[in-house]
């Protein structure tokens, strides 16, 4: 028989994961313990409290189904139970209810967390609120279709990123760094979601790429918190379709995160420059330059490297882009030239 949740002696989150690093993440996050009776919640962050209206004290020790209600689809409940029993990832839409009784549509992603032996120790849940249907109805049908398509794409990207993170966490000595990288990747797509759903774009299917890239860089620089590293951004006003914008945003996230984490060891001062422009050959050029330590002599990045290198290669391939890397003791330059038609 499994032990019960004890509020006077709450279980710890998985080894290597810092509560403080998860508390202020920009998306709602829940960790549950399947080894305790009724699979209770053992951690929620502030975004969860904001979205649901339930404080941590109200949620801890309860099964996540307390968020469900009268209009929660039974088929969705069954899919969740089956995924947890099979220890598999799942992404789905489900109707949940806030503490005040108000219902909302929740894009829910659940993934198992495993120890070094491959045993599932906890489950991670990430929640993202859909915009209310009433808001959709008040706008044009074109916007409806665009938002639904955008949500579908964001959902697929987030599911892909969770799979990547699970692979990376198995290799990493500390899950803390993996969650920081996960936060950066998901934050990049969250910014895109916000830009499109805010209605501030000139076209509902297009993104103002310069403004989006600038926001990604500024946000990641703030999250990284390296005060001795200056990030300069020079991005032209270029428009791109949603799919291309999401891929370029992830490229910026990977390249900037890599520079901030590895170019300036031991807290050295430095500068990272992120540029986006359209050249005379009608290519959209993305360049990330740092004046840090440079790549190791025996490093053939991104042909060889960690998960981030694989993501960069894959995204460049999807955009049919040319990727070049120039590194020395004076720093590293990464340039990606994207055909203009790849943005359409």
Automatic annotation (TrEMBL):
<dbReference type="InterPro" id="IPR011495">
    <property type="entry name" value="Sig_transdc_His_kin_sub2_dim/P"/>
</dbReference>
<keyword id="KW-0157">Chromophore</keyword>
<dbReference type="Pfam" id="PF07568">
    <property type="entry name" value="HisKA_2"/>
</dbReference>
<feature type="domain" description="Histidine kinase">
    <location>
        <begin position="149"/>
        <end position="342"/>
    </location>
</feature>
<dbReference type="InterPro" id="IPR000014">
    <property type="entry name" value="PAS"/>
</dbReference>
<dbReference type="InterPro" id="IPR036890">
    <property type="entry name" value="HATPase_C_sf"/>
</dbReference>
<keyword id="KW-0288">FMN</keyword>
<feature type="domain" description="PAC">
    <location>
        <begin position="88"/>
        <end position="142"/>
    </location>
</feature>
<dbReference type="Pfam" id="PF13426">
    <property type="entry name" value="PAS_9"/>
</dbReference>
<dbReference type="InterPro" id="IPR001610">
    <property type="entry name" value="PAC"/>
</dbReference>
<protein>
    <submittedName>
        <fullName>PAS domain-containing protein</fullName>
    </submittedName>
</protein>
<dbReference type="Pfam" id="PF02518">
    <property type="entry name" value="HATPase_c"/>
</dbReference>
<feature type="region of interest" description="Disordered">
    <location>
        <begin position="1"/>
        <end position="20"/>
    </location>
</feature>
<dbReference type="InterPro" id="IPR000700">
    <property type="entry name" value="PAS-assoc_C"/>
</dbReference>
<dbReference type="InterPro" id="IPR003594">
    <property type="entry name" value="HATPase_dom"/>
</dbReference>
<keyword id="KW-0285">Flavoprotein</keyword>
<feature type="domain" description="PAS">
    <location>
        <begin position="41"/>
        <end position="87"/>
    </location>
</feature>
<dbReference type="InterPro" id="IPR005467">
    <property type="entry name" value="His_kinase_dom"/>
</dbReference>
<dbReference type="InterPro" id="IPR035965">
    <property type="entry name" value="PAS-like_dom_sf"/>
</dbReference>
């Amino acid at each position: 028989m499994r032990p019960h949740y004890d509020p006077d002696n709450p279980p710890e989150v998985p080894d290597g994961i810092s509560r403080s690093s998860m508390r202020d993440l920009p998306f709602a996050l829940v960790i549950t313990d399947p080894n305790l009776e009724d699979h209770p919640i053992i951690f929620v962050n502030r975004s969860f409290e904001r979205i649901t209206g339930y404080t941590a004290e109200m949620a801890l020790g309860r099964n996540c189904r307390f968020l469900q209600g009268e209009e929660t689809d039974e088929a969705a409940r069954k899919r969740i139970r089956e995924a947890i029993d099979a220890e598999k990832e799942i992404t789905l839409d489900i109707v949940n209810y806030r503490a005040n009784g108000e219902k909302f549509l929740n894009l829910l992603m659940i993934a198992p967390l495993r120890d070094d032996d491959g045993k599932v120790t906890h489950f991670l849940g990430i929640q993202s609120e859909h915009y209310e249907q009433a808001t959709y109805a008040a706008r044009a049908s074109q916007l409806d279709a665009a938002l639904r398509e955008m949500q579908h794409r964001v959902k697929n990207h987030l599911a892909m990123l969770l799979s990547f993170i699970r692979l990376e966490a198995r290799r990493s000595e500390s899950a803390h760094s993996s969650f920081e990288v996960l936060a950066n990747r998901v934050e990049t797509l969250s910014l895109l979601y916000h830009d499109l759903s805010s209605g501030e774009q000139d076209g509902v299917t297009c993104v103002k790429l310069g403004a989006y890239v600038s926001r990604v860089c500024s946000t990641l620089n703030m999250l990284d918190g390296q005060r001795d590293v200056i990030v300069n951004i020079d991005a032209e006003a270029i428009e791109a379709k949603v799919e291309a914008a999401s891929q370029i945003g992830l490229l910026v996230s990977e390249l900037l995160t890599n520079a901030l984490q590895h170019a300036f060891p031991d807290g050295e001062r430095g500068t990272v420059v992120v540029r986006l422009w359209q050249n005379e050959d009608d290519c959209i050029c993305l360049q990330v330059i740092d004046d840090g330590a440079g790549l190791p002599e025996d490093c053939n990045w991104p042909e060889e490297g960690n998960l981030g290198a694989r993501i960069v290669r894959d995204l460049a391939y999807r955009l049919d882009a040319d990727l070049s890397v120039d590194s020395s003791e004076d720093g590293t330059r990464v340039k990606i030239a994207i055909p203009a038609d790849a943005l359409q």
